[in-house]
């Protein structure tokens, strides 16, 4: 048995009953269940039709996301999340680079790395090298003045934790940011690279080993083992090429507003909804959402 979920941007809900019922009837699904009026609905299917991708593309043009997944075990016990352009709206290294006057060069490298065109580790070292000599105090300024949180993140974490879940933030970025973001959003733990400083200035390097694609998979393995749960009990979310390993290994891997090359390799793609979409994918209704304190 499969569950088909239809959802849209909660800030601009465009999901109407006619669309849901037309698709349910065409695919011979069960009764539609509304998780949030105008925003999210789901129905069960005995099997997936051959035209799922065609329907997905048509709905995308109308601002609607479609996801199909096995019904069994879809409520997860752990969240493993990327940070940059996932839990927050920015790439922290790009913002630091802008402060250092090398923003355009670093943004170009970041875009290519996140799209899978460059080796992540080499691209990270090249970009960090361009930050050499930057006043370390700029980190706090960037966090305070430039970082915004992706809508729905705190609610996603609070709701999963209220149901007994565990939340881990695992980033190819820097602990100087993950520690603050994790604390603000309610994550149980965080992992990232450590920017090296000397005399109050960045040295242009990070500690080894570098946390990248393989380290994110390792985090999934280690944390699930520690919690005594399986990888199938985890939901991972990210947007870049270095997230693909954990997206493929987790029980549910969600590409959120991802780079095209990444979205093309993900089974669950959210391009219009916010982070609460991950709750709808698990079958939570909006009335069950827990508001973060």
What keywords describe this structure?
293 residues, alpha/beta, Alpha-Beta Plaits, six-stranded parallel beta sheet, four-stranded antiparallel beta sheet, 12 helices
Secondary-structure map:
Elements: E1 2-8, H1 17-27, E2 33-36, E3 40-45, H2 52-60, E4 64-70, E5 78-81, H3 92-100, H4 103-114, H5 120-129, H6 138-146, H7 153-162, E6 166-174, H8 175-185, E7 189-193, E8 195-198, E9 201-206, H9 213-227, E10 234-238, H10 244-249, E11 252-256, H11 260-263, E12 268-270, H12 277-281
Parallel strand pairs: 5-6, 5-10, 6-7, 10-11, 11-12
Antiparallel strand pairs: 1-3, 1-4, 2-3, 8-9
Helix pairs in contact: 3-4, 3-6, 4-5
Structure overview:
This protein has a domain at about 1-70: Alpha-Beta Plaits (2-Layer Sandwich), CATH 3.30.70. It has about 290 residues and is of the alpha/beta class. The chain has twelve helices and twelve strands. The protein starts with a strand and ends in a 12-residue tail after the last helix. Strands 7-6-5-10-11-12 form a six-stranded parallel sheet, with helices on both faces. Strands 2-3-1-4 form a four-stranded antiparallel sheet. The model has no long low-confidence stretch (mean pLDDT about 95). α10 (about 245-250) links the parallel β10 (about 235-240) and β11.
